[in-house]
Amino acid sequence: MIAPACRPLLIGSFPGSSHEEIVRAICAVTPDFPVWPQLPVYRQEGMLEQFLEGFPGLVEKDGKSWIDTTAPDFDAALLAFFEDYLICAEDPEQLATSRFAFSAEAGRGLATLLTHCRQLPQAPFALKGQVTGPVTFCTTVVDERERAIFYHDTLRDVAIKMLAMKARWQARLMREVSDNVLIFQDEPGLAGFGSSAFITITKDEVQTAIGEVSAAIHAEGALCGVHVCANTEWPLLLEKDVDVLSYDAFSYFDRLALYKDALAAFIRRGGLLATGIIPTAPEFIERADAAELTRRWFEQCETLAAMGLERQRIFEQSFITPSCGMGSLTEAQTAQALGLLRDVSAAVRNRFQ
Question: In sequence order, which ranges of the chain are alpha helices (DSSP H)?
Fold first, then answer.
C-alpha cells in the first residue's frame, strides 16, 4: 500500500477539447499521481459510451445506445464475447489486441497521458485510471425494452466482465510507465442504493459486482478505488476489497462519519481516503477559500481522531481531491478548482511536515 500523505489527486472528467493541454495541467497540479482525462465534449469519452465498446448486441442510433437482445446474431455475439473473455482471463497478454482495449477514439486521454509521462525525466510515482462502476453502468445502460441491464442476469454478467477486463487492460498499460497504478470505479449510481428506484437491488449484488472488478484490478498489482460523489450506504464499500474510498467530503463527510466502526476498521487495515474537500459545484467554487477548506479538513481529521485513529495515520493515508469530476464545469471554474486543490494540499502537508 502507498502513503499519499495528502498529495493532490483528480477524479477524471474535464471540460475542453485538447487532451494535450489538459494533461499538462493535470501533471502540473498532480505530478505524483496524474490521471488520464475523460473529455465528455467527445461522445466516445462519455461515461457510458467509453466502456460500451465491444459489448455484444450494442446498437447506436440517433445519439442513443442500447443492447438489442432480439437481434438475429445476438446469441453468436454473446458466445464470441465469452470466448474472448476466457482467452484474456487465461492469458492477459491478449488484452492488448482484444475488444477490451480502448479504440483510438475512446482512448485519447489515456494515450496522451502515457505519451507525456514517457517524455518526462522521471516517471510519476503512480498513475490513475478509471472505469464506470458496474452498478452505475448496469442501472443506466438499457436493453431494447428500455429496461436496465442490471435486471437481466446475462447482460449484467457481461457488463461486469467487460468492465473488469477494461480495468485490467488499463492497469497493464499504465504499469509500463509507473510501477504504481490506481484504478477507480466511478459509482455515482450508488447514491440511489436503497431508494425506491433501486429497491430490488441487494447489498450482495452490489458487493459482488464491485468485487469482481476489484479482483481484476488487483490481479494486475494495482490498487482499487471506488468514487461516490453523494451519500450512500458506506459499509457497502468499507467492508469490501476496496483500497481507496473516494467521497465528497465537502458535502457528505458527516454522513460517512456516522459509520464509525466500519470507517475506523477500513483505515486501520490500510485503506486510503480520497477526501473530496474541494467543491465542484459552481456555486461553491466561486466563493471557496483555500484557508477555509484547509480548516475544514483539519476539523474532519479531528472527527476521525476521535474514533481512536492517529492523526499521522490519517494524514499519511489520505489524498486531497475535488468532490467530483469537473467535466460539466467551465474552463475558468476548473482552473479555480485546480488552484484550490494545489493550495489546500500544500497547506495540509506543510502543517504535518
Answer: 19-29, 49-52, 74-90, 108-118, 134-140, 153-174, 203-219, 235-238, 249-256, 260-268, 282-285, 290-305, 311-316, 331-352
Strand partners of residue 61:
64
Give the residue carrying C-alpha cell 443492447.
Answer: 67
Report the C-alpha gap between 275 and 342 in whole angstroms.
14
Task: Please report, as a single letter, which amino acid is at residue 29.
Answer: V
pLDDT of residue 240: 77
Whether the per-residue pLDDT at 200 is higher than 80: the answer is yes
Q: Give per-residue pLDDT as tens, 297-306.
A: 999 999 999 9
Task: Give residue 195's pLDDT band: very low, low, confident or very high (50, 70, 90).
Answer: low
User: What does the DSSP 8-state code read for residue 190?
Assistant: G
- Name the CATH topology of 19-352: TIM Barrel (3.20.20)
Domain residue limits, the chain: 19-352
C-alpha count within 13 angstroms, C-beta hemisphere, residue 212: 20
